[in-house]
Each structure stands twice: as structure tokens, then as C-alpha cells.
Write a structure and sequence with these properties.
Length: 88
């Protein structure tokens, strides 16, 4: 029984590792209509708890899958949903 449970756990860990290996780092910047970087903008990968905040110059880096939707929100600004795919 223990061997079967261990074997299943190993298979799950290998499968999860392969899925995570498909993520890539996305580096961009959040800017206003004048091209100025926006600091402290929250960026979330929709449907997950994965996210980050933009730096003082608006720059951010986030691990993302091949496709999905990013949610950008900050106090005083309208929430923005941006769909992306591997060409982003």
C-alpha cells in the first residue's frame, strides 16, 4: 500500500513540475496615458493567487503560463483586464 501511495505521489510531483516548467517570466511596465510609469499597481494572474506590484517606475515581473488574463488595479484607477498568449 505504501509503495503504491509513494509511486502516485512521485507521478503527481513530476506532472506538477512539468506544468510549472511551462511558465515564463513576463517583464513589462505599467504606464499612464502620458507614458509615465505607475508605481504600486497590483497585477494578478486571473483565477490564481499569483501576482505582484509595479515598482516606482511602473516595472513589474511575473511568472505566467502560455496564455491567460492579467488584472491590473490600483486606487483611483479603473480595473483593467488584459488577455495574453504566447506572443506577448
Amino acid at each position: 500500500m505504501r509503495k503504491i501511495l509513494f509511486a502516485n505521489l512521485v507521478v503527481i510531483l513530476i506532472a506538477t513540475g512539468n506544468l510549472m516548467a511551462q511558465d515564463r517570466a513576463l517583464s513589462r511596465a505599467v504606464k499612464d496615458e502620458n507614458g509615465q510609469g505607475l508605481p504600486c499597481v497590483n497585477i494578478l494572474l486571473k483565477g490564481t493567487n499569483r501576482g505582484t506590484n509595479s515598482a516606482g517606475d511602473g516595472a513589474f515581473k511575473l511568472l505566467v503560463p502560455a496564455s491567460g488574463t492579467l488584472v491590473f488595479f490600483s486606487v483611483g484607477y479603473e480595473t483593467k483586464y488584459v488577455a495574453f498568449n504566447s506572443s506577448l
